[in-house]
Amino acid sequence: MGISARRLAADEHVVASTRTHPKALVLPALVLILTCAVTGFLLAAALSKVGPLLGWVVVAIAAVVVSRYSVGPFLRWLSASYTVTTRRLILNSGVLRRSRRDVPLQMVINVEVERGLLDRLLGSGTLVVSDAGDVGRAVLCDVPRVSDLQRTIDDLLYDRSSSPPDRSSQRLTRSEW
Fold first, then answer.
1. In this predicted structure, what is the pLDDT of residue 72?
2. Which of 84, 103, 154, 175 is most exposed, with minimal Cβ within 10 Å?
């Protein structure tokens, strides 16, 4: 999980790395269990009354449902990661087509946490990082221990042992980006 050390600068190191909270897998797991139960019931009914052809149709439909609603979300969860280094926030996602977004910490202007009732119970939440770039904000959904990650980013932004970082580089014109 995270980022390879060869993709980091010489004086850069990983401070925190995580993926979305496992609660994102609850619905895919329920779909898998329900699909297997319904498929087993239909196979037992179809094989005893109609024949094997209907059984193969039921299995094919079940395979499509499981692939789309259970395996797909699991692979997306497994391949996505959020990494905080001493210089940037890196968001990786995608199974077949990988995408990566880097947000330099020197461009971050605000870090917010959004938490619903279930998020508060599970210790997760959504981290919204606003930056001075073209995109404007990065939304990290279902982050486990979201308050700890926010505190880590805040500590990097406003180095607690010294003065806050120089923010003058945020006032660049579009042509200088």
1. 94
2. 175
